[in-house]
Design goal:
Blueprint (H helix, E strand, L loop, with lengths): L2 E9 H14 L5 E4 L17 E9 L4 H15 L9 E5 L1 H7 L7 E3 L3 E5 L11 E5 L11 H13 L5 E5 L5 H8 L4 E6 L2 H13 L6 E5 L2 H7 L3 E7 L2 H8 L7 E13 L3 H10 L3 E8 L2 E7 L3
Parallel strand pairs: 6-7, 8-9, 8-11, 9-10, 11-12
Antiparallel strand pairs: 1-3, 1-4, 2-3, 5-6, 12-14, 13-14
Helix pairs in contact: 1-2, 4-5, 8-9
The protein binds S-adenosyl-L-homocysteine.
The site of S-adenosyl-L-homocysteine has 20 residues, from α4, α5 and β9.
Amino acid sequence: MDWIEIALQVDGEAAEAVAELLTRYGHQGVSIEQDNIASEKWDDGDVPPVTTLTLRAYIPADDRAEDAKLRLESALGHMSMMYPMPRPVYTLVHEEDWAEAWKAHYHPVRVGKRMLIRPLWIETEIASDDLVVALDPGMAFGTGTHPSTQLCMVGLEDRVQPGMNILDLGCGSGVLAITAAKLGAAHIWGLDIDPIAVRVTDENAAQNGVAAQITAQEGSLAEVVASGRQYDLIVVNILARIIITMCGERLGDTVRPGGLALFAGIIHDQADAVEAALRQTGLEPYARRQDGDWVLIEARRPA
Ligand code: SAH
């Protein structure tokens, strides 16, 4: 079977809504890629270019494809009354190329002070103190190119202490669990509701030589709360809406008194609402980090 790639270029503001729309049509998720910004090209005093993201999803190229396109375009039409929406670009992808198609858009990327995300199939130059995370996200979320993932990596780089026990809720490709392992965490429990993410996290952990430090399982907050376990640090890069819901389901209990928590997947105008919910679950927000429209909130559980 052949596939149709749907690509949409959006700004950070529109990304979440469009990604949610695409997940209704796309098979096995939506890929999010931050478009390259030619930073050397703008001089001091120029207005920095707006960060754009490319979202991609794939639908089967069968007799329902035209109908799917029409419904997608009509939904975009409705959304464009509130916010300008891009036009989708369709590309036919042959079955044998499909699983590989998105890889063409994926390159090594440096994050934080010394982290380097390297697609598994690309060799790249590595400095002696580089902390390399080699990834094949496959069809799981988390290529490491999304600003929200990068904010989490920078947060981990600053906060992980050797020997910590960490919870990675919504582990996707395992990118954050592997980052934490390489930063010296004793153990990371990666949970995801998507079984593909669990398999991919295991595979990537093995590729990075940190399988012994990472346990990936299918599940979510309920499993952690039921286990009664508490962590030195939790990282949750999902979506503001889901984080707020989790706050009503004892999210704060998963952090040990005196422990830390990093929350991302949050657009800046949602940050106040997320912080209010965090306080309700017994966490104390104390810092924000921002990249374009995306925000990471750092919180602690009072000792
Ligand atoms: N941690 C990765 C992936 C983030 S994408 C990164 O930072 O790049 C968010 C992930 O959360 C997806 O893999 C999705 O399947 C998972 N997810 C969504 N809702 C969830 C929930 N309620 N509980 C656990 N995982 C969830």
